[in-house]
Design brief:
By secondary structure, the chain is mainly alpha-helical. The protein has one domain. The protein is built from eleven helices and no strands. The protein has helices at 3-21, 28-32, 36-52, 58-69, 77-91, 95-111, 118-135, 144-153, 161-171, 178-203, 209-215. The radius of gyration is 20 Å and the shape is globular.
Length: 216
């Protein structure tokens, strides 16, 4: 093969690999096969990498956070492990920034599915689903979590047919659009807040601080 053509071919393969796997260190299926001890060991290793790094200390922590949230959470593993990464990112004043980057990465991948393999698409969808579930209790604060929920809701994500089939095959569930999930949660939150405000007004009570925030 002509050396120039060979060089171009190698670059093409590198590009395909990059687009297919994105920044993930594991896909959802690989993560599903890992138990609590294995995930915990991975997190500890990433924390160690971060401590030893001269610069870019948040990169290993970002990888760990992404992996934790990209694993199906039927066993509630996120609540058992995620705090250790959050603490380390907070020490670097990077928790919200890193999480927003990961959310943006997942949204971009799902909005451009032709560039990614079906298992990668499912992995990003699971990441957003877990993010939505974990952020839901914090909506009352109208802070970072609320803004990220709005960002996901407004992204108009639609899962591809190949991603739905992959998920049905591996997880026995096609799943739904993360955007639709986020929209429903926000709508229910606003309806519940409005209902509480109306009850407070009817009884002459002061609205709670949470309900006051929902008016802002």
């Amino acid at each position: 093969m002509n050396p120039l053509l060979k060089f171009i071919f190698v670059l093409f393969l590198m590009g395909v690999s990059f687009h297919s796997e994105a920044g993930l260190i594991f896909n959802y299926h690989q993560l599903t096969l890992k138990n609590l001890d294995q995930i915990n060991a991975m997190v500890k290793e990433k924390i160690k990498e971060s401590k030893l790094a001269y610069s870019g200390k948040t990169v290993p922590l970002k990888e760990a956070l992404q992996a934790i949230y990209s694993r199906p959470n039927s066993d509630d593993m996120i609540s058992k492990i995620a705090d250790s990464i959050k603490v380390k990112l907070d020490e670097e004043s990077a928790y919200e920034g890193v999480f927003e980057e990961l959310i943006r990465e997942a949204i971009n991948a799902l909005k451009n599915p032709s560039k990614f393999k079906k298992d990668v698409q499912v992995t990003y969808a699971i990441f957003l689903e877990n993010t939505i579930a974990e952020f839901k209790p914090e909506l009352k604060n109208k802070g970072f979590e609320y803004k990220m929920m709005e960002k996901i809701a407004n992204s108009s994500i639609e899962l591809t047919q190949e991603a739905r089939k992959e998920r049905q095959l591996r997880l026995m569930s096609e799943g739904t659009s993360p955007s639709e999930m986020a929209k429903k949660i926000l709508e229910n939150y606003e309806l519940e807040s409005k209902s509480r405000q109306e009850k407070s007004a009817a009884t002459g009570q002061e609205p709670s601080n949470d309900d006051k925030k929902s008016e802002e």
